[in-house]
Amino acid sequence: EVELVESGGDLVQPGGSLRLSCAASGFTFSNYWMNWIRQAPGKGLEWVAHIKPDGSEKNYVDSVKGRFTISRDNAKSFLYLQMNSLRAEDTAVYYCARDGRILPYWGQGTLVTVSS
Amino acid sequence: DVVMTQTPLSLSVTPGQPASISCRSSQSPLHSDGRTYLDWYMQKPGQPPQLLIYEVSNRFSGVPDRFSGSGSGTDFTLKISRVEAEDVGVYYCLQTIQVPWTFGQGTKVEIK
Prior knowledge:
Number of helices of chain A: 0
Number of helices of chain B: 0
Order of helices and strands of chain A: EEEEEEEEEEE
Structural class of chain A: mainly beta
Strand content of chain B: over 45%
Low-confidence stretches of chain A: none
Strand content of chain A: over 45%
Oligomer: heterodimer
Number of strands of chain A: 11
Radius of gyration of chain B: 13 Å
Mean pLDDT of chain A: 97
Largest interface: A-B, 19 and 26 residues
Largest sheet of chain B: 7 strands, mixed
């Protein structure tokens, strides 16, 4: 059974940093594109970034370019999101999701709150 | 960026009645590989989104057949033939033809 479990969400001050993790199990992690998608409180969904199976291609939404970095460890089946220079508008539940152009599997999400 | 516009933004439906949600994209999600990368997701309160329909009209595994998707070009529709209480939630369309992938604003479906 495919399972994705996010962790690392926390309360952080503006300008601070945080690293999110997504532990994957139940499938061959190294075969799949992986994504981060976020949802601000009471708002809609926003795709944040994705990464190719071998890590050679990464894409980001403009609002996080230069601040966030997506990465993966295929040996450990982990997906990461390093978030720097955090802003209040980055406050959201962050979901990891599996696959390329279709997203059939999602984690339960981890909450990031950026506030002083 | 490709802008996805959903209508209506909210819908109140009597159980057993049909419901329809429209999604219009600012650019066609038709890829050169012949596939149209337009999907529908539903998010129940307090849960992550779940895939309903992929590539316009393909129901994902386990999705009831009362859900159907259609459309072409830049206009797409999600239909629920007979709404049930468990269909309450927010429905989103998503295009994955061009980075950044973009979702519609969401349509909240409530039961009368």
